[in-house]
Design goal:
The protein is an alpha/beta fold. It has two domains: 3-95 and 169-200, 2-Layer Sandwich (Nucleotidyltransferase, domain 5); 106-166, Nucleotidyltransferase, domain 5, CATH 3.30.420. Helix content is 32%, strand content 27%. It contains six helices and twelve strands. The chain has helices spanning 35-49, 69-86, 95-105, 171-181, 189-193, 204-212, and strands at residues 3-7, 13-19, 24-30, 59-63, 67-68, 89-93, 111-117, 122-129, 140-143, 153-156, 165-166, 200-201. A five-stranded mixed sheet has the order 3-2-1-4-6, with helices on both faces. A five-stranded mixed sheet has the order 9-8-7-10-11, covered by helices on one side. Strands 5-12 form a two-stranded parallel ribbon. Helix 3 crosses helix 4. The longest helix has 18 residues, at 69-86. The radius of gyration is 17 Å and the shape is globular. The chain starts with a strand and ends with a helix.
Length: 213
C-alpha cells in the first residue's frame, strides 16, 4: 500500500511517513510554530524520498492526537483539503493505539497504562491488555499524582521519568494500523469532515485565559 502519514501533535516536531510497495520512509522535522508554511515542502521531500507522486497514493493518514492545538488544527485542515481535492481515503490514528502497537511489536505483554500529559499537572490515560485486540476504552482525564495508582506498566510520551517510561512510536506500528484501518477509512465528504482531533492540549494563551476566569 502507498500512503502518506502526518503527525503534528507535538508543538515543536512534525513526523511524516510515506510508504511505497517495498519500503517505509519515516522522517521527523523541527517545525516549531511554522508548520503551515513548511508543510507543503516537507511533504514533497518525503514523497520524493519514497519515489512517489501524490497521484500514486492509495490514502492519506493523519494523527488525531492528543496533542498541540495548533499543530492538530493545521494538519487536519490541510489533509482534509488534500483528501477532498484528490479523492483520497483519509485514515485517522491516535497516539494511544500507536503506543500500544509499538509495545506489541517490541514483544511486550500484559496490562499497561498509557499516559499522555495535557493541562498542567493533568494527563489523559487508558489501561489496556497488550495481549487482547480489544477496542481501546475512552481516555480519561487524571491528575498526574494519580498515575501511580493506574494498573500495569506505566508508559507514555513527554512524561517525567518517575511517572511513566518514555515510548517511541515505531514506524512499523504506524504502517500496521494504517493498513488495518484502510478499508473503513473516511472516503466521502461527510466522513472526511468527521475526522477531527481526538483531544487537544490547550495553548499557553488559552491556559492563561482559563486561569483568569
Amino acid at each position: 500500500m502507498k500512503y502518506l502519514y502526518l503527525d503534528a501533535s507535538d508543538m515543536n516536531e512534525t513526523v511524516l511517513q510515506a510508504a511505497n510497495e517495498k519500503q517505509i520512509f519515516h522522517e521527523s522535522f523541527k517545525t516549531e510554530r511554522d508548520l503551515a508554511s513548511k508543510l507543503p515542502s516537507l511533504i514533497d521531500f518525503i514523497l520524493e524520498k519514497a519515489e512517489l507522486s501524490k497521484k500514486d497514493l492509495d490514502c492519506l493518514a493523519i494523527c488525531a492526537g492528543p496533542g498541540s492545538l495548533t499543530g492538530l488544527r493545521v494538519a487536519m485542515s490541510f489533509f482534509r483539503l488534500v483528501a477532498f481535492a484528490g479523492s483520497y481515503k483519509l485514515v485517522s490514528l491516535n497516539l494511544f493505539e500507536l503506543i500500544r502497537e509499538s509495545m506489541r511489536l517490541k514483544g511486550e505483554k500484559g496490562e499497561v497504562s498509557i499516559i499522555l500529559p495535557t493541562l498542567i499537572n493533568s494527563a489523559f490515560a487508558i489501561t489496556c491488555n497488550l495481549e487482547e485486540d480489544e477496542k481501546l476504552q475512552q481516555p480519561r482525564l487524571i491528575q498526574l499524582s494519580e498515575a501511580k495508582d493506574l494498573l500495569g506498566k506505566k508508559v507514555g510520551m513527554a512524561c517525567a521519568a518517575d511517572i511513566a517510561e518514555e515510548i517511541c512510536i515505531a514506524p512499523e506500528a504506524i504502517d500496521t494500523i494504517i493498513k488495518k484501518k484502510y478499508e473503513t477509512a473516511a472516503s466521502d465528504f461527510k466522513d472526511i469532515l468527521k475526522v477531527l482531533p481526538m483531544y487537544i492540549i490547550p495553548s499557553q494563551a488559552e491556559r492563561k485565559l482559563e486561569a483568569i476566569k
